[in-house]
């Protein structure tokens, strides 16, 4: 499966671009390490990349660029805010997506990645006169659950919340963020308001109808009340995942 490569220098970028076949869809994420939405988008993009197999010739290539460190490249693609996604084929910009909407990013990638596979579908049609036009609902659900399975394991502690840690969109999410901060927990997060597919699908996947949801090591802990109960019965519940306990910089 595909994964995201971090581009660390202009020569690294030039070498990567020149190595790609002309038909490859190049997916570029411009980010900044201080911007919380970039962490969420990196999680989204990593999960999406895992859905695309490595083919011969290469159908998709996924890279990440620090927009501030490699400002020349950022300026070349008119990056004025992060996260910022650029889709490129044959050196030509096909589409850009600014912001952290997972729905817009997924739709844009699927729209342009599909153009490679659609050519194969037409060729097959010449041979057998038949092209599938509708996706099997069961297959679609299976793919969604695979994506969700990867998402809940994106970090040892994953919070699925309404909004972001800096701007929670509900009181329960705000309280859970506060608990994680109080316990110095290093965690990943996903704004379920930015992706309705995840918002609805995770309810069934987890068999848990409400948000926020906290996952630890790929297992559902529960919502705010459950987390409070866990801490009440075990003050060291988050100790293993505490930045202080691991001696990392806050």
Describe how the helices and strands are arranged.
Blueprint: E1 4-7, H1 10-19, E2 25-31, H2 36-49, E3 60-66, H3 71-76, E4 84-89, E5 92-98, H4 102-128, H5 137-151, E6 157-161, E7 163-164, E8 167-168, H6 171-182, E9 188-191, H7 196-206, E10 213-216, E11 219-222, H8 224-233, H9 243-246
Parallel strand pairs: 1-3, 2-3, 6-9
Antiparallel strand pairs: 2-4, 4-5, 6-10, 7-8, 10-11
Helix pairs in contact: 5-7
Pfam families: Glutaredoxin (PF00462), Thioredoxin (PF00085)
Domain Thioredoxin: 11-102
InterPro entries: Glutaredoxin (IPR002109), GRX_PICOT-like (IPR033658), Monothiol_GRX-rel (IPR004480), Thioredoxin-like_sf (IPR036249), Thioredoxin_domain (IPR013766)
Structural account:
This protein is an alpha/beta fold. The protein has 2 domains: 125 residues, Glutaredoxin; 96 residues, Glutaredoxin (3-Layer(aba) Sandwich). It has a 5-stranded mixed beta sheet with strand order 1-3-2-4-5. A 4-stranded mixed beta sheet has the order 9-6-10-11. It is globular. 29% of the residues are buried.
CATH architecture of the largest domain: 3-Layer(aba) Sandwich
How many helical elements?
A: 9
Distance between the termini: 33 Å
Low-confidence stretches: 116-133
Rg, Cα atoms, Å: 20 Å
CATH class categorisation of the largest domain: Alpha Beta
- Strand percentage: 15-25%
Q: State the helical fraction.
A: 40-55%
């Amino acid at each position: 499966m595909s994964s995201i490569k971090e581009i660390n220098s202009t020569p690294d970028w030039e070498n990567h671009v020149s190595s790609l076949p002309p038909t490859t869809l190049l997916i570029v994420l411009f980010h900044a390490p201080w911007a919380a939405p970039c962490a969420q988008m990196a999680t989204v993009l990593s999960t999406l990349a895992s859905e695309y197999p490595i083919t011969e010739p290469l159908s998709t290539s996924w890279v990440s660029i620090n927009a501030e460190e490699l400002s020349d490249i950022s300026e070349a693609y008119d990056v004025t805010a992060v996260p910022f996604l650029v889709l490129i084929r044959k050196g030509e910009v096909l589409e850009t997506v600014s912001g952290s909407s997972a729905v817009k990013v997924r739709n844009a990638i699927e729209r342009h990645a599909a153009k490679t596979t659609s050519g194969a579908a037409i060729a097959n049609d010449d041979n057998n006169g038949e092209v599938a036009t509708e996706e099997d609902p069961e297959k679609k659900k299976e793919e969604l659950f695979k994506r969700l399975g990867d998402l809940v394991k994106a970090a040892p502690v994953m919070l699925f919340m309404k909004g972001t840690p800096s701007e929670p969109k509900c009181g329960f999410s705000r309280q859970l963020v506060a608990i994680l901060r109080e316990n110095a927990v290093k965690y990943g997060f996903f704004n379920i308001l930015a992706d309705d597919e995840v918002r609805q699908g995770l309810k069934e996947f987890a068999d848990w109808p409400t948000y926020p949801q906290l996952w630890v090591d790929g297992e559902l802990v529960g919502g705010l009340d459950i987390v409070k109960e866990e801490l009440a019965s075990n003050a060291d519940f988050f100790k293993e995942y505490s930045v202080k306990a691991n001696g990392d910089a806050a």
